[in-house]
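Protocol step 4 of 5: obtain the predicted structure for the target chain.
Materials: sequence only (see below). No template structures provided, no constraints applied. The aim of this step is simply to have a reference model before the mutagenesis design in step 5. Sequence pasted as it appears in the construct record:
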Amino acid sequence: MSVREMLCRNDERFRTVVAGLGSDEWAHPSLCDQWSNHDVLAHLVVGYRCGPGEMLREIARHGGLFDRANSAMARALAEIHSPDELLDELGQLMYRPRGLGRVFPPRLLLGDHITHELDILFAVERVPQIPDEMLATVLNTQVALPNPFVPAYRNSRGLRLRTTDIDWAHGDSGPVVEGRAAELVSVLGSRPRMLPALRGDGVELLASRISPRPIHRAG
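Step 4 output (structure tokens):
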């Protein structure tokens, strides 16, 4: 299976999973700073429908700041389209992406989409059911390739990473961080919410890279 086919299969699975969320869950703050779960879904659609010209114009309107433009586009789309409407559009665009979604490397896009799925599910305390193959592919990409949207490459430097639920590991030296694959994907993407679920002598170093606040581990 090509990575592009894997991305489409993952998007189809994602649509099925989140179709069952209620209105309160869509309105709930996600793990992505200042975005609701509804905003995160809109962001995924923006990624498939927005062309480079439109993005450059939006960045110019927001003082040359990409993050501000990105947030504005997601919120604007969420204001005029319900989650059901956005899921329908995602279903149409995932096989025929336009603009940035067509040229952005599918391997990096898969990591972005799974990280945002975890932003939604962990926020409303739903247990993710992402296939092991998808999680392993994302982790392999995260530790090997810089992604302008998910800072996992930087966060993973010098750490030995181990997953406790799938057969995956990275690094031969350095402090250890271990946990379930989905939690590791989320934390490497600079989401501190799942830090307490990780273990090892490298957790404090990882935490210092992604969160200014001390962590409190369970158990």
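Step 4 remarks: The first helix runs from residue 3 to 18. The longest strand covers residues 160-163.
Proceed to step 5.
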